[in-house]
Design goal:
heterotrimer, A mainly alpha, B mainly alpha, C mainly alpha, A: mainly alpha, Four Helix Bundle (Hemerythrin (Met), subunit A), about 0% strand, B: mainly alpha, Helix Hairpins, 3 helices, elongated
Chain lengths: ~180, ~100, ~120
């Protein structure tokens, strides 16, 4: 085993363990913190896979922005602690078993299959030479021009939708001490 | 190729499965949304792994789009959760059954 | 082709992480070994600038915090797209400029809506 594989195994173990921690916590605050650990290790994995720009994105957007949104929502909900930790589904062992079996099967199948490399125009040396950001930008702004413009519409709709959904929030219904 | 592609794919399958189990077993909507983030991350790991394996940049570009859509999804999903909580005072999925036939 | 995946220029990052983690662990362990431990009710109350604490630490926040952080997330994504664009602007020329101008114009509509609907007001 070489150094890369050792790092990969470390990242993989941390991702799996903290993913399980995320979905088993009663208190959502701990779940958010475990998810933070998962996101950081996924970013580390992206560095191993020669995608530095994606790794930076993972830290900036997922860990820095989306999880903050989750924490804010947690603080906005004024449920007592017991109610927040809404218990698992009644038949959860059955569902866990079904999901676990399917996962195990897929993972086994994937781990044993071979994928023949079909080299494209961006081998790791080239990417490292020009930088991950530039390589992604070259493809993003030429080949993916149309999806790129559509993304701005998606963001616009999300923005308007979220404002409409939360605008009519009167102080009596959830403001801070009726301010 | 020092990290076998199949290892990464197996990891992403496991993370995806954990996300699915979270979706199936938990009833707290916040945790359900977090499980969705786990599933999206599993898909992103797959895309980056194949992008690296096939020496192509398309997978990485699609990951950028996925992350943008995930942010939009979190913004709207959490806004819906807030609206639901304002009207029903609950975050438990089983207590939301108006639409049940 | 000898293809090592581990980018060696990340070694300093790793070193920094190890140093930071080591600093925290060593200080906490040393502190817990050396300090005297005599807790009392007075010492265990949360510190609120010297006055006795009022109410619970966990209380509800104003919904405006959500709106602000939601807007931050969405404009954060916009900024993320600006990075590769800025790196490539010279190469893309006028085409890239118009492309990004359209992108930003569409998002400016959302900004205008947020402004008009009062989502940015903190009355």
């Amino acid at each position: 085993m070489n150094l890369d594989q050792a790092f990969f195994l470390y990242f993989a173990a941390m991702i799996v363990v903290f993913s399980i921690v995320t979905i088993t916590r009663k208190n959502p605050v701990y779940a958010v913190m475990a998810l933070l650990v998962v996101f950081f290790h996924v970013a580390g994995l992206y560095v191993l896979l020669n995608a530095e720009f994606i790794a930076a994105l993972q830290v900036v957007v997922y860990a820095g922005a989306i999880l903050v949104l989750y924490l804010f929502v947690l603080m906005l909900l004024s449920v007592p602690r017991e109610a927040l930790g809404a218990a698992a589904h009644r038949r959860w062992p059955v569902y866990a078993l079904v999901g676990g079996a399917t996962t195990f099967e897929i993972a086994l199948l994937l781990a044993r299959s071979k994928f023949a490399p079909r080299p494209g125009p961006y081998p790791p040396d080239v990417v490292r030479e020009m930088g991950s950001t530039q390589a992604i930008g070259t493809v993003l702004f030429t080949e993916f021009l149309y999806p790129f413009e559509v993304i701005s519409l998606v963001l616009l709709v999300a923005m308007i939708g979220a404002i409409v959904l939360t605008k009519k929030w009167t102080p009596a219904q959830g403001g801070e001490e009726g301010r | 190729m020092t990290i076998p592609l199949s290892w990464v794919l197996a990891l992403s399958a496991v993370v995806f499965g954990i996300g699915v189990i979270g979706l199936l077993t938990r009833r707290n909507i916040l945790i359900l949304l977090m499980s969705l983030e786990l599933i999206l991350n599993a898909a992103n790991i797959n895309l980056v792994a194949f992008s690296n394996h096939l020496h192509s940049m398309r997978g990485n570009v699609i990951v950028v789009f996925t992350i943008a859509v995930a942010a939009a999804e979190a913004a709207v999903g959490l806004a819906i959760l807030l609206a639901l909580f304002r009207n029903r005072r609950t975050v438990n999925l089983d207590e939301v059954r108006e639409m049940k036939g | 082709m000898p293809e090592t995946h581990l980018p060696t220029q990340y070694l300093p990052v790793l070193l920094l992480l190890a140093l930071a983690a080591g600093f925290v662990v060593i200080n906490l362990v040393m502190g817990s070994l050396v300090r005297p431990k005599r807790p009392s009710a007075e010492k265990l109350t949360p510190y609120e600038s010297g006055i006795p604490p009022i109410g619970q630490a966990q209380r509800r926040f104003n919904v405006r915090f959500y709106l602000v952080s939601m807007l931050f997330v969405l404009f954060d994504i916009e900024t993320v797209f600006l990075y590769p664009w800025a790196v490539l602007l010279k190469k893309l020329g006028m085409f890239g400029f118009v492309e990004m101008a359209v992108f930003i114009m569409i998002l400016l509509v959302g900004y205008g809506y947020a402004w008009k609907s009062g989502a940015l007001n903190w009355d």
